[in-house]
């Protein structure tokens, strides 16, 4: 399975240890509403303590790969930690190093903002 598809499988199953191991030590993650998350320890802290999603499922509708970059488009449906249900379209952009680890991820959600 491609590492990007593995990522969504791990996050949906709540397998945070396996998920974190897909990322390089110096990873940079940009996500709306958060300062850049820099480094594997900060990424693990985000998933264990700050992520507002309790559980859910990602459905990937498109995965495009070129060289060291992968773009993903899909839908997420699940529950937030405050009990609300959520359904949202998203796009993720990954950059992968020579060892196959994610060195950068940028997430975008399709919600009214401007």
From TrEMBL:
Q: Where are the transmembrane segments?
A: none
Keywords, A to Z, come to:
Isomerase
Any GO molecular function: isomerase activity
InterPro entries, per database record? NTF2-like_dom_sf (IPR032710), SnoaL-like (IPR037401)
Which parts of the sequence belong to the SnoaL-like domain? 4-104
Q: Carries keyword Isomerase?
A: yes
| A family per Pfam | SnoaL_2
User: In its keyword annotation, does this UniProt entry include Ion transport?
Assistant: no
Name under which the protein is recorded: Ketosteroid isomerase-like protein
């Amino acid at each position: 399975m491609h590492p990007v598809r593995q990522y969504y499988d791990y996050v949906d199953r709540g397998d945070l240890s396996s998920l974190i191991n897909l990322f390089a030590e110096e990873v940079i993650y940009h996500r709306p509403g958060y300062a850049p998350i820099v480094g594997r320890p900060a990424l693990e802290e985000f998933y264990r303590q700050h992520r507002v999603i309790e559980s859910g499922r990602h459905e990937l509708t498109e995965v495009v790969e070129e060289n060291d970059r992968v773009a993903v488009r899909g839908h997420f449906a699940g529950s937030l930690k405050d009990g609300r249900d959520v359904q949202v379209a998203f796009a993720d952009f990954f950059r992968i190093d020579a060892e196959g680890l994610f060195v950068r991820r940028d997430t975008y959600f399709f919600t009214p903002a401007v």
